[in-house]
């Protein structure tokens, strides 16, 4: 009799276990396409029904089964690598996207770019040197000069516009960093309380993992796991999330809340209950999307804009110097041809004269005008070579980023595949698990039916023979 009741306990426990297994398989299947979902697996544990005793002996054999845990199929080391490589990829992709857009705006090589305008400006002076008295040739010089100045101003405006957009973008990313950090801190608390109450917190853990990955993409955040399962998050080596508390990520200088430049270098600060810390800059500072934007705003675009400013300054100085050595149509000494403000840069480059007669094409005054000075002006400065070096350098940087991004994409993709194999849902595998649980459930139910029949015979039919 005792053995029969023990079998009932085992069969009932098997029913409960297989019911959980079916529930887990169903949850996996229904979340197969859910971003960030980590598949679960029921881990069973054998539970003995025998109680150790010194002076007694049990005739029960075997034991029951219980749910040891519903395990999330994660690998902490793989998760760490995935977050790190996604942060690196975000850093490169952000720069590549921005610089590719700027490169498209440069439009080189092309018929409408700055380089073509420089060549047209030189050719106009050459044409004037062969016909120094022609009004049309003089007007052509002024027209090509204005086209060149405008091309430089447009390119500077495009770069400045991209910088303005990225400063706004930077503030938006900082806001998203703070939202994600606050979300992790809240989930840390909720997970701890939920699991202390004996409730499964798998869904909360999935959400927290997604936020940790997003923080890595946004700012190159590094996540570590405490002994109690809570996440601590650092950015640039400084704490942003500690348990259930999150600091506030702030733009300390360089960009105003409205997205304007304040003239200072871009720096960041974390304000928290444990103190306020200014983050390091450069490679030791924030990474991810935030680091990519910062790199573009502090180094790449200012460097290119400085190159345009230098070309405009050299062009204006060389042309003005040579133009002053010549004489205009009236025999007067040549005046300033280009106006240029070094405090403003290439955006200030303008043609200073509007009357074609003021173009100083001749090297002599009086009636014997020639085109010698116009010929010299066609060779003034090395704007074409300097501009070509600048554009080639920028193009090389963009191409290098593209190669690095392609390599990082391949590495990140291989890690994502490994994560998917570890934590992703395989519908075929889940179907097999579901069918296994179904058959096991049916077997346990059949065992209960058999035991019911055995006990019915034992209780209701035993001793009835001969009555």
Question: How would you explain this protein's 3D organization?
Answer:
There is one protein chain. With 467 residues, this protein is α+β, with helices and mostly antiparallel strands. The protein has 2 domains: 2-73 and 424-460; 76-188 and 286-423, no CATH class. Helix content is 59%, strand content 12%. The chain has helices spanning 2-30, 76-106, 114-130, 135-196, 202-219, 288-324, 372-377, 383-423, 427-460, and strands at 40-48, 63-72, 222-225, 231-235, 238-242, 245-246, 248-253, 267-272, 275-278, 338-339, 350-351. The strands form 4 sheets. A 4-stranded antiparallel sheet has the order 3-4-5-6. Helix 4 (135-196) packs antiparallel against helix 5 (202-219). It is elongated, with a radius of gyration of 38 Å. The model has no long low-confidence stretch (mean pLDDT 90).
Give the secondary structure arrangement, pairings included:
Elements: H1 2-30, E1 40-48, E2 63-72, H2 76-106, H3 114-130, H4 135-196, H5 202-219, E3 222-225, E4 231-235, E5 238-242, E6 245-246, E7 248-253, E8 267-272, E9 275-278, H6 288-324, E10 338-339, E11 350-351, H7 372-377, H8 383-423, H9 427-460
Antiparallel strand pairs: 1-2, 3-4, 4-5, 5-6, 7-8, 8-9, 10-11
Structural class: alpha+beta
Q: Quick one: biggest sheet?
A: 4 strands, antiparallel
The helix tally amounts to 9
Widest sheet, order of strands: 3-4-5-6
Quick synopsis:
By secondary structure, the protein is an alpha+beta fold. The chain has 9 helices and 11 strands. It has 2 domains: 2-73 and 424-460; 76-188 and 286-423, no CATH class.
């Amino acid at each position: 009799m005792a053995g029969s009741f023990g079998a009932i306990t085992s069969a009932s426990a098997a029913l409960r276990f297989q019911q959980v297994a079916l529930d887990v398989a169903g949850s996996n299947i229904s979340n197969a396409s859910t971003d960030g979902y980590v598949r679960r697996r029921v881990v069973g544990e054998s539970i003995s029904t025998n109680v150790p005793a010194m002076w007694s002996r049990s005739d029960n054999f075997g034991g029951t089964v219980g749910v040891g845990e519903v395990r999330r199929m994660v690998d902490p080391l793989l998760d760490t690598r995935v977050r790190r490589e996604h942060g690196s990829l975000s850093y490169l992709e952000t720069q590549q996207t921005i610089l590719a857009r700027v490169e498209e705006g440069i439009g080189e090589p092309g018929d409408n770019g700055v380089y073509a305008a420089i060549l047209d400006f030189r050719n106009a002076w050459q044409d004037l040197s062969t016909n120094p008295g022609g009004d049309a040739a003089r007007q052509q010089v002024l027209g090509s000069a204005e086209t060149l100045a405008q091309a430089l101003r447009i390119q500077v405006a495009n770069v400045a516009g991209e910088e303005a957009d990225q400063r706004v973008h930077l503030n938006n990313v900082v806001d998203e960093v703070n939202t994600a950090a606050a979300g992790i801190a809240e989930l840390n608390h909720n997970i701890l309380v939920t699991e202390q109450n004996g409730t499964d917190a798998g869904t909360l853990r999935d959400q927290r993992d997604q936020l940790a990955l997003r923080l890595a993409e946004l700012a190159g955040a590094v996540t570590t796991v405490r002994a109690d399962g809570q996440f601590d998050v650092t950015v640039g080596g400084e704490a942003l999330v500690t348990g259930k508390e999150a600091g506030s990520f702030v733009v300390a200088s360089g960009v105003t809340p409205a997205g304007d430049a304040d003239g200072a270098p871009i720096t960041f600060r974390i304000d928290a209950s444990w103190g306020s810390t200014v983050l390091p800059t450069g490679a030791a500072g924030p990474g991810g999307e935030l680091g990519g934007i910062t790199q573009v705003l502090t180094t790449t675009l200012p460097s290119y804009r400085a190159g345009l400013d230098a070309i405009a300054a050299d062009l204006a100085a060389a042309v003005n110097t040579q133009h002053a050595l010549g004489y205009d149509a009236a025999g007067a000494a040549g005046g300033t041809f280009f106006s240029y403000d070094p405090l403003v840069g290439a955006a200030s480059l303008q043609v200073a004269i509007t009357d074609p007669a003021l173009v100083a094409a001749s090297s002599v005054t009086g009636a014997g005008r020639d085109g010698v000075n116009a010929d010299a002006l066609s060779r003034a400065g090395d704007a074409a070579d300097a501009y070509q070096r600048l554009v080639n350098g920028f193009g090389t940087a963009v191409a290098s980023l593209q190669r690095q991004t392609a390599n990082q994409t391949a590495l990140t993709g291989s890690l994502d595949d490994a994560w998917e194999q570890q934590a992703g849902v395989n519908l075929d595998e889940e179907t097999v698990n579901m069918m296994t649980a179904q058959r096991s459930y049916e077997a346990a139910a059949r065992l209960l039916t058999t035991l019911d029949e055995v006990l019915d015979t034992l209780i209701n039919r035993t001793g009835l023979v001969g009555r």
